[in-house]
Amino acid sequence: MKVAVVYAAAQPLLLSCQVADGSSVAQAIEQSGLLRFCPEIDLKKQKVGVFGKLVKLDSPLKEGDRVEIYQRITRVLDDDDDDD
After folding, report:
1. d(CA 68, CA 52)
2. Measuring CA to CA, which residue among 33, 65, 29 is closest to residue 47?
3. What angle do CA 32, 36, 41 make, to 5 degrees?
4. Domain 2-69 falls in which CATH fold?
5. How far does CA 34 lie from the centroid of its chain?
6. CB atoms near residue 3 (< 10 Å)
7. pLDDT in tens, 42-54
8. Contact indicator for 36, 15 with CB cutoff of 8 Å
9. How far apart are CA 12 and CA 7, in angstroms?
10. Does the CA dihedral 73-78-80-81 come out positive or negative?
11. One Pfam family this chain carries (predicted)?
């Protein structure tokens, strides 16, 4: 079945790939080759989803699903930020 794997980086990357029926999110990410292009991805720390809904790496996929790997959200406080 055909699925897409997307990484929302500064320059988003979308890869389409063929996976076996019943493949998991983790299997699709691995088979897409995305981790070779983006070695900074740490699936133990980053959240993943399918069409905007958070899922676990072992979640099964369906034909046409879009797997999304989300960047960690960080907030950098600068001198103008108040905590009041």
Report:
1. 7
2. 29
3. 95
4. Ubiquitin-like (UB roll) (3.10.20)
5. 9
6. 24
7. 999 999 999 999 9
8. no
9. 6
10. positive
11. Ub-RnfH
- pLDDT for 13-36, tens place per residue? 999 999 999 999 999 999 999 999
Three-class DSSP category at 29: helix
Amino acid 43 reads L
How far is it, in rounded angstroms, from Cα 50 to Cα 54?
Answer: 7
Both structure tokens of 3: 């699925």
Instruction: Kindly provide the residue ranges of all beta strands, DSSP E only, lying in 12-83, ordered along the sequence.
Output: 13-18, 48-50, 53-55, 66-69
Q: Which residue bears the tokens 């072992």? A: 58
Q: Does the pLDDT at position 81 exceed 80?
A: no
Domain boundaries, the chain: 2-69
Match 């108040």 to its residue by tokens.
82
Higher pLDDT, 80 or 26: 26
